[in-house]
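To whoever is on call:

I kicked off a structure prediction for a single chain this morning and the downstream step that reads the tokens threw a length-mismatch warning. I double-checked the sequence; it's 352 residues and nothing unusual in it as far as I can see. Pasting both halves so you can look.
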Amino acid sequence: TYTVKWESGNLTGDVIQVNISGPSGKIVSYLPSTATSYDWTIPAGDYTTNNKVSISINSVGSNENEAYEAYDTVVVNVTEAPAPYINIISPKSTDTLIAGKTYTVKWESGNLTGNIIKILESGGRPVTYLPSTATSYNWTIPSDCVNNKANISIGSIASNGKYEALDVVIVNVTEDASPPYINIISPKPNDTLIAGKTYTVKWESGNLTGDWILIYAGSNLVAGASISDNQALWTIPESYAGKNLDISVGSIKAGNWEVEGMVNVLIEKENVITPSIDYVSPASGTGRDTIKIYGKNLVHAIPDGATIQFLQNGEVVHSVGSKNIHSSDGSVITFQIDNNFLGMLGPGKYQI
């Protein structure tokens, strides 16, 4: 359908006549003189020699026998519209798919006049209807495929209710011989984890048909994940300290374990080691004291170049800058108290 448009002026007649020439004569429509357009649906089939069509817009009086007072004519070329088509891209007819699993069927299409795509599977069973612009559908292969074959049809429905385009793919279907599995990658068996910290539980899996993944610590559900995920975060409660726990990662299908992986770990409290302060008597002739701070695996390791502060009764009374720190490897720091600290406050208990 095309809209024929025109402009007019100074007409005295009260009728516009639309003449369209075709092989079966003239298609005539009468419109009021104020009309400026006409919707023309081109009939299918050959029109005239050389596929030419003449469209005339004429102004006539109320008497049909009167001559045209004004008219205009346009001759246009007419051709057949490109044929509608649907081509299934995937799966291919050479593919072997697994019964009960879901696959994405993809197709390309063009020149469709209908508004509906109809999807059918083995035995001509309609499974869904989609808009004509659709290009994919998630298809779960029926488990009752005859002779280990399954077919899916993609068809476009024209306005007359018939298929204007159709494509079919027939695939081989087999049962999944590989069992589902889940292997926990981390933590590893017999790892020691720290209560209060957050860990990433990681796993690998295959051939799962369940609905989701659940992670348990002992009998407690601690996290959940999508069936396609391969990791989840777990923050260990402080109350778990001192326990041996089985960490389970399982695929849940219809409310039951489909398959699970498991590791056993030990949960401990955070190992906080308090640095020791060793007081070394002044080196001979220097008048200075040397102090060493020890503590393997310090929770807050003192970095090289740090500033050390001396406190008395909670008040900072002296600072030693980084230039006075002789060494630091995260476990031992050695530095000397410079002279201006000597005799400053006299005897007392100091914190470093």
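Update from on-call: the warning came from a stale cache, not from the record. Cleared it. Sanity check on the structure: Residues 105 and 137 are 5 Å apart (CA to CA).
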